[in-house]
Amino acid sequence: MNESIITKTKKITTLTIIIGIALYLSKFLRHIFVNNHTVLYVLGFLPNLGLSFAIPFIYISNRMRQKKPVRYFTISCFITFLLMVLNEIRDKYQTGRVFDMLDIYASLAGVLFAYLVFEVTLKKDLTIN
Q1: Cα angle: 72, vertex 10, 74; to 5 degrees
Q2: How many helical (H) and strand (E) elements, i.e. helices and strands, does the chain have?
Q3: Percent helix, percent strand, percent coil in the chain, to nearest 5
Q4: Is the pLDDT of residue 129 over 50?
Q5: What is the rounded distance in angstroms from the CA atom of residue 14 to the CA atom of residue 92?
Q6: Contact at 8 Å (CB) between 117 and 11?
Q7: Cα angle value 85/91/86 (rounded, 5°)
Q8: What is the pTM of this model?
Q9: What is the DSSP string of 86-108?
């Protein structure tokens, strides 16, 4: 991989991780909007969307740090979704937590969006033919 591809990949990967983590951290804004149900609705699923978007790119970042090719991005997306669903199911049985099907849909949307971003911006540069 040449230096310009590595730089481009690092920039895109870093930006997607930052966006995903920022969306995840939006959960800490909920206490500010306790009287605005629309904002609370959005802040309810935004953390799942953000985290499921960021985690597959953390895989890419780790592979690049190790100077290894990215071969299993689709599998990392699937595993991310599976872990997000299992986390939501755990909420069903944990005191003080709430199971929400919308969180599962948001996790699916985040993983699909991560896959789309990967396909459009990085796949041709990172995968081995």
Answers
A1: 15
A2: 5, 0
A3: 85, 0, 15
A4: no
A5: 33
A6: no
A7: 25
A8: 0.89
A9: HHHHHHHHSTT----HHHHHHHH
